[in-house]
Amino acid sequence: MSSPDPTVRAARNAAAETENAGKQAGGAPGRPLRRPVVAVTGAASGVGALLTQALTESDEVKRVVAIDERRGEAAEAHWHVLDVRDPAIADKLRGADVVVHLAVDLDLETDAAARTAYNVRGTQTVLTAAAAAGVHRVVLCTSAMVYGALPDNDVPLAEDAELRATADATGVGDLLEIERLAHRAPRAHPGLNVTVLRPTVLVGGTDTALTRYFESPRLLVVAGSRPAWQFCHVEDLVSALEYAALEKVEGELAVGCDGWLEQEEVEELTGIRRMELPSSVALGAAARLHRIGLTPSPAGDLAYTMHPWVVSGSRLHEAGWRPRWTNEEVLAELLEEVAGRHTVAGRRLGRKDATAAGAAGATVALLGTAALVRRARKARRRI
Fold it and tell me: Is-above-0.90 flag for pTM?
């Protein structure tokens, strides 16, 4: 039998090399490897800035398109300065294979209505613009908070567990709406794949109601509750987002450290003693303080310090991803970040306020008790 034509032989060899490379990278056999063009929104700060820099340094990415309302520091990225709610974003996304949408505002101090308008409208616009521009994958980032913090939660929760959160906690209503948009998008835009990452308590340059919990001189524990703590370092979230951008994973994915810490372990590791309050006092005080505008955190935030909402993260693990950080390491870093800060019921105090407050950790209890006493006095006067 004669040898194959050299051109045919070369083509076969190239195909074999492509298939072998696909197998080594964990891809589907025969699927050609290509370096995608990745667009990142919210690219100038926070997680977006870290991801943009990581992608520009990756040999697996062809080009990075960075979108934000200001230019960031990643010089190698192709920058577009605009609001993600601007329909003109569709033109900026043309040629991109993947969009990672991180332009989401969860700042405690932002007006709630303005925050929701930005988060929901921005996500709607990005999904629609991505489909119009021919992008085949959008990666969104919400939070494991969407599962809800409930006393009957499995420990850990499976990633396909029902989303039972309510809109009572800071930003969770926005995140639930983003989840709904993610679920509907592939039906509205056939051919568009939407991947959602849900990190646990995010630490590393972040400021949330949950990180502020550790700024108090006492850790508030609601009597009868069963807290469980699972952290996610921003570096691990960035690496998981990179996995999704490179299409190594898809679907709904939880991101966090392996395992979790019980409240007693947290207290031992931090050296911060607990302050235990009845549920009625803690929740009532938190609700009143938020209602009169003294604290940015609604009472719903307390649920996430009362009940477990830890997740398995099995889907990322099955794809070969592993967190670099442990819960203990992330908690230690968090304590370093919050050192010198003083927070009561989610409200950060200045140095003078903290000094005047004295045992600041007891303030919630005192305010709640004082309110109950005043109410009782008024009732007695009516008699």
Answer: no
**342 contacts: CB under 8 Å, gap ≥ 6:** 215, 216, 217, 348, 349, 351, 353, 354, 357, 360
- On the CB side of 119, CA atoms within 13 Å amount to 25
The answer to whether 49 and 74 have CB atoms below 8 angstroms apart is yes
The sign one gets for the Cα dihedral 195, 200, 203, 206 is positive
Q: Is the dihedral of CA 271, 272, 275, 279 positive or negative?
A: negative
Report in angstroms the alpha-carbon separations of 325 from 230, 235, 260: 11, 9, 12
Residues lower than pLDDT 70 in the chain = 1-33, 342-383
43-47: list long-range contacts, CB under 8 Å, 24+ apart: 43/67, 43/68, 43/72, 43/74, 43/77, 43/79, 43/102, 44/68, 44/69, 44/70, 44/71, 44/72, 44/73, 45/72, 46/102, 46/205, 46/206, 46/234, 47/102, 47/141, 47/234, 47/237, 47/238, 47/241
pLDDT digits (tens, 9 = 90+) for 357-378: 333 344 444 444 444 445 544 5
Token pair recorded at residue 170? 């800071």
- Per-residue pLDDT, 14: 40
Token couple for 284: 């009532």
User: Looking at residue 298, what is its pLDDT?
Assistant: 87
Give me the residues paired with residue 261 across strands.
229
Say how far apart CA 228 and CA 226 lie, in whole Å: 7
Where are the alpha helices (H) located in 151-292, listed in sequence order? 172-188, 209-212, 234-245, 263-270, 279-291
Residue 381 is predicted with a pLDDT of: 57
Instruction: Give dist(CA 280, CA 68) in Å, integer.
Output: 43
